[in-house]
Amino acid sequence: MDKKIAVITPVYNSENYIDKCLETVKNQTYSNLTHYVYDDASCDGTVDVINNYSGHDVCLIQSNKNRGQSFARNTLIAAALADNCSYVAFLDSDDWWSATHLEENLVFLNKANLVFSTPQCISETGVSLWPTFFIPDEFSGVHLNKGNYIWISSVLADIKCFVDHKFITEFNSIEDWDMWLQLYHSGFKLIKQPTPTSFYLIRPVSEKNRGHSIVSKIYEKYKHLNEHETQ
Predict the structure, then answer these.
(1) Rounded to an integer, what distance in angstroms lies between the CA atom of residue 24 and that of residue 90?
(2) This prediction's pTM
(3) In this model, does residue 207 exceed pLDDT 60?
(4) Are 6 and 82 in contact, with CB atoms under 8 Å apart?
(5) Alpha carbon distance 4, 2 (integer Å)
(6) Which of 48, 72, 74, 193 has its CA at 20 to 30 Å from residue 35's CA atom?
């Protein structure tokens, strides 16, 4: 039997986007999955959209307090571990995948713990844009010492990566970069696969909240490890 994949989606005021996110999970050619969604105290119609959706199995966890994406992802991963899921796929509420995303990427986990790819960047008007994530073709974990080269909505990983590693709730942005560094420096193998199978919606708020104020904190946190490596 195919191993179960947990699709992890934190949502907050995603009324205008969540339906497409739900549809992209329903349309996956890999069917043994559960979609875990954490609503972070939305004040729009996000929860109504989710509750009225009937396309696939959605496990909705609601919060009465806004706790941030790190807390949401940690909570959803804990639920997936309790349900004996084998893999975790991350999907933000305003992003989407090609129908074969999970099936195509799963084969790479035979030789790595985490796989990702360059996203196809799309504007709100549907125009294809140049990628905002420039991922070297020769990517190795060492690249992460210089910047966040892994876009979270393209990631599929062995759930064992997250048993002893959590998203840092003190970081209110680019917390995913911290996670990839945790995994890399703990010996997990992260690889880039060449085929883009995910789509990143470029919104003004997407670029506004890139979290540049956190960058120096992450550099400082891993400085003692990074200085022993060279590119």
Answers:
(1) 13
(2) 0.90
(3) no
(4) no
(5) 6
(6) 193
